[in-house]
Design a protein that fits this description.
Alpha-Beta Plaits, 2 domains, single chain, 5 helices
Length: about 130
């Protein structure tokens, strides 16, 4: 769940306001947005992925709000870690962008369920079938 907005890092670009599927943020004409509805956060991490200023921290707990200390999160290196490890923006090429590689997840889920025909995304972006 969204836990922290670091106002001193925020560029007030409002990309988090635009991409949030749960409308958690309220934009302000001058300055950073507000985390207006934290309880509506779906813990999708989109705001963290799109925030190039690394001004947002989404705690992995999705069912309850978690209080975090800005200093502890900054010192622990977790601010920006999700975006970095997902290979977004300046981290592309340094870390593999595995955020959207759901092929393995689908394959493993199918194997666990005992299915034979598993949906896969081909290199052309079209669906194809792979035998398990």
């Amino acid at each position: 769940m969204i836990s922290l907005l670091l106002a001193d890092r925020c560029t007030a670009c409002n990309v988090c306001v635009r991409i949030c599927p749960a409308n958690v943020f309220d934009a302000h004409p001058q300055g950073p947005p507000d985390i207006a509805r934290p309880g509506d956060c779906q813990t999708c991490f989109h705001c963290e992925l799109y925030c190039q200023a690394d001004a947002l921290y989404v705690a992995p707990e999705c069912d309850q709000a978690v209080e975090v200390e800005a200093g502890a999160v900054l010192a622990g290196g977790t601010v920006g870690q999700y975006r970095r490890h997902s290979g977004w923006h300046e981290w592309a090429g340094t870390y593999p962008n595995e955020q959207w590689l759901m092929e393995t997840v689908f394959r493993r889920a199918g194997e666990a369920a005992g299915k034979r025909d598993l949906p896969m995304v081909g290199t052309e972006g079209k669906m194809r079938t792979q035998q398990a």
